[in-house]
Write a structure and sequence with these properties.
Blueprint: H1 5-8, H2 23-34, H3 41-48, H4 55-67, H5 72-82, H6 103-122, E1 135-138, H7 140-146, E2 157-160
Antiparallel strand pairs: 1-2
Helix pairs in contact: 2-3
């Protein structure tokens, strides 16, 4: 049973090229993609009314879902796969080369990556920010490590980088 394609994959009915997925299928995919959970009552209601595939309604639901705390599942899963953040504990920097590296810095670096992605997503910033941005997500420990002055405390927050900084993106 665990090896069956019916168990492992989302199987779709074979349909003509013009046919789209149903609103119920759309609700399910959207919810599992953004929340890693089954659709909520609002999504199911819109799907039952065949309104979810309307572009304006769909956009509104995506915005609502991304604004919900459950969207943290999407951010963790996406950045975990894309940036291999799940594998961060698989290696440890050489203490002789990086004597200041510690668990707080490691944790901060992972959370920085997630928070940066979240900032780009929620503020609808241009994708080019992933390569070059004028800000970073910092706390005191990261700022110290990156040589950015004036940041104190453990709370991660957006901060402007000095013009000469190579840390943006």
């Amino acid at each position: 049973v665990l090896c069956s394609p019916n168990f492992l994959y989302l199987r779709e009915d074979v349909r003509s090229a013009e046919s789209r997925i149903t609103d119920t299928e759309l609700a399910s995919r959207l919810s599992y993609f953004l929340w890693s959970a089954m659709p909520d009552a609002e999504l199911l209601k819109l799907a039952a009314e065949n309104r979810l595939s309307d572009p304006a309604v769909l956009r509104g639901q995506v915005e609502r879902m991304l604004g919900d705390d459950k969207s943290d599942h999407f951010i963790r899963n996406f950045t975990g796969q894309w940036l291999h953040l799940r594998e961060i504990n698989a290696t440890t920097p050489d203490a002789k080369v990086y004597p200041d590296f510690d668990e707080i810095l490691q944790y901060s670096m992972v959370e920085e990556s997630r928070a940066f992605f979240r900032e780009i997503l929620t503020r609808d910033l241009p994708v080019v920010n992933f390569l070059d941005s004028e800000f970073a997500i910092l706390n005191g420990r990261l700022a110290e490590h990156y040589g950015v002055p004036g940041v104190k405390g453990m709370e991660l927050r957006p901060g402007r980088l000095p013009k000469e900084s190579v840390r943006g993106g």
